[in-house]
Amino acid sequence: MTKILTILIFITFLLIINKVYPGTLKNIKTSIFSKSISFIKINKLSKNIIGRDIFYEDNKEVKVLSNEYDLNSIRKYYDAEEFKVSTNLPIGAIESGVVIFVGEKDNYGTTIIIEGVDGYNIWYSNITDINIKLYDYIEKGSLIANAKDSKIYLLIEKDNKIYSYNEYKENKD
C-alpha cells in the first residue's frame, strides 16, 4: 500500500511541477531518453530506498573462478585487448554488475557488456554459449559464456575512457 501511495505522490508532484514550470516533463523525458542509464546507480538508489536490489534475483548460477587471463599473450585488437585462452574456456565475470548488452558488435562478434558495480563497462567478445540475458544481475565469477575459439576480446571502459586489463586491475587494488 505504501508503494502505491508513494507512486501517486510522485506522479502528483510531477504534475504540479509541470503546471508551475510548463515543459518540465518534456525536458525530463528528453533527458532520460537521450542519456545512458546507469543501472548500477538505480540499483544502489533502490537498495537505499526500499532496502533491496531490484535487478538481482536469487537464482542459481554456476560459479566459476574469475579467469586470470594469460597476461603474456595480450595483443591490441581495435579498442579492446585480445587474450589467448583455451578453446571453449568458461568465461567468468571479472566484476559483479548488470548486463546492458547481449548481441553482435562489428569486428568483435558475439558480445556481452556488463556494467560493473564499480562503474566500468566490461565487454566480453568472441564468445559462445551465453548463459545470461539482458538486465540480469551477475555476480563476480559467475559463468557468462564460453570462448568461441582460442581468443577472447576484453574492452574495459569508464566515462568514455578505455582502460587496459592491467590498468583496470591496478585501479581495483
What does this molecule look like?
The protein has 173 residues and is of the alpha+beta class. The chain has four helices and eleven strands; from the N terminus they run H-H-H-E-E-E-E-E-E-E-E-E-E-E-H. It has helices at residues 2-20, 24-34, 39-50, 165-172, and strands at 75-77, 80-84, 90-92, 97-105, 109-116, 121-125, 127-128, 137-138, 143-147, 151-158, 161-163. The strands form two sheets. Strands 1, 2, 4, 5, 6, 8, 10 and 11 form an eight-stranded antiparallel sheet that branches. A three-stranded antiparallel sheet has the order 3-9-7, with no helix packed on it. The chain is elongated and about 60 Å long.
Shape: elongated
In total, how many domains does the architecture comprise?
2
Global mean pLDDT: 80
Helix content: 25-40%
The major pleated sheet works out as: 8 strands, antiparallel
What is the end-to-end distance? 44 Å
**Second-tier CATH architecture of the largest domain:** Distorted Sandwich
Using the CA coordinates, give the radius of gyration. Answer: 19 Å
Runs with pLDDT <50, length 5+?
Answer: 57-67
- Number of DSSP-assigned strands: 11
- Class inferred from helices and paired strands: alpha+beta
Order of helices and strands: HHHEEEEEEEEEEEH
Q: Approximately how much beta-strand content do the residues carry?
A: 25-35%
CATH class call of the largest domain = Mainly Beta
